[in-house]
Specification:
Helix content is 42%, strand content 30%. The radius of gyration is 30 Å and the shape is rod-shaped.
């Protein structure tokens, strides 16, 4: 007893179409995952570069206020940038930093408190990734 061949006609075509649709869906999902993963990696890399730009700005601000090897009893006044300062260091192209500084004198205690904040930013195409670092320092006593 053989099943009638006319009743099974076209079932292989339907199975092939189903498999093609499933494989196309899997391929599309995989390409979306890879694209999202690539965007995440780019954001992480530029985030690390922005952090390094912020560290560079913070170190330059600290050295300006507290010069190394200086015996000056009075540290220099801290400055706040009006515009982002671009970096031309290899690895930090398209990156810049913006420094902010505040200080407050406590004459009765003989101390001066500083608050440094630096934002590093790097541009990757249309996206701008930024990181901010803050440090408090004390001079005196």
């Amino acid at each position: 007893m053989c099943p009638d061949k006319h009743k099974q006609g076209g079932s292989m075509l339907m199975m092939a179409m189903f498999i093609l649709v499933v494989l196309a869906g899997l391929g599309f999902a995989l390409s979306r995952v890879l694209s999202t993963s690539s965007d995440t990696i780019v954001t992480e890399v530029y985030g690390v570069r922005a952090l390094q730009a912020a560290k560079s700005g913070l170190e330059s601000q600290l050295v300006a206020v507290f010069p190394l090897g200086s015996s000056a009893s009075e540290p220099a006044a801290c400055q706040t940038d009006a515009l982002f300062q671009t970096l031309s260091v290899p690895g930090l192209e398209n990156c810049a930093y913006l420094r902010r500084c505040q200080h407050e004198d406590y004459a009765t205690a003989g101390i001066r408190l500083y608050q440094f904040s630096v934002t590093g930013a790097c541009q990757a195409g249309d996206a701008v990734i930024s990181r901010t670092l803050s440090v408090d320092a004390r001079e005196g006593l």
